């Protein structure tokens, strides 16, 4: 069965510092992997997706993620945090063929001035 | 550019009352989904509809029913609301080989 683990329910970084949000997955088949962002009182917006092409995926708002099969990881990074990045971030996995998403519990990103 | 529209945005119910949450998409997507979001638990799939005329249970279907009224609309019904169903409900849709698009959610409180 597929599962997703996001390490850290809350991550706090200073403005201008590196953002690193961790996601590990388990899947018995080649996975598709996604990061979504949720701003307060809004729905979820797709940041980026991995669908078996390039292992380094670039998304919106300067975020990127790297698929590492050996580590079963898909960590999200951004070189320099902005105040506007404060939100909750969700990692999700699906089997390549069906796009039925299994979700992590989410990580709330806090940006300190 | 409406995308996925959910109504209502907020609702307070008393235990035992019934209500229907509405979802409509204007992107001609085949598949539609209902999730609930609870703190620390991510999103959990309630029901989904892979195509018009079909519906299937997700991870947490108990206490809910759905109707895929047509290609655009997918409604979620609570027949007898319980406090455990207090949550934020999200509708999503997608087309073939594309990720899911989400509505802004319905915040439901059951007293």
Total number of beta strands of chain A: 11
Order of helices and strands of chain A: EEEEEEEEEEE
Mean pLDDT of chain A equals 92
The whole-number mean of residue pLDDT values of chain B reads 94
Shape of chain B: globular
The interface involving the most residues is between: A-B, 19 and 21 residues
Assembly state? heterodimer
Low-confidence stretches of chain A: none
What is the global morphology of chain A? globular
Q: Which class of secondary structure composition applies to the elements of chain A?
A: mainly beta
Strand content of chain A: over 45%
Tally of extended strands of chain B? 11
- How many alpha or pi helices of chain B? 0
Q: Specify the biggest β-sheet of chain A.
A: 6 strands, mixed
Topology:
The complex is a heterodimer of chains A (113) and B (111).
Chain A: E1 3-7, E2 10-14, E3 19-26, E4 31-38, E5 44-50, E6 56-58, E7 64-68, E8 73-78, E9 87-95, E10 102-103, E11 107-112
Chain B: E1 4-7, E2 10-13, E3 19-25, E4 31-37, E5 43-49, E6 56-57, E7 64-68, E8 74-78, E9 87-94, E10 101-102, E11 106-110
What structural keywords apply?
heterodimer, A: 113 residues, mainly beta, six-stranded mixed beta sheet, 11 strands, globular, B: 111 residues, seven-stranded mixed beta sheet
Structure notes:
The complex is a heterodimer of chains A (113) and B (111). Chain A is mainly β and 113 residues long. Chain A has strands at 3-7, 10-14, 19-26, 31-38, 44-50, 56-58, 64-68, 73-78, 87-95, 102-103, 107-112. In chain A, strands 2, 4, 5, 9, 10 and 11 form a six-stranded mixed sheet that branches. In chain A, strands 1-3-8-7-6 form a five-stranded antiparallel sheet, with no helix packed on it. The radius of gyration of chain A is 13 Å and the shape is globular. The mean pLDDT of chain A is 92. The interface between A and B is medium-sized, with 19 and 21 residues.
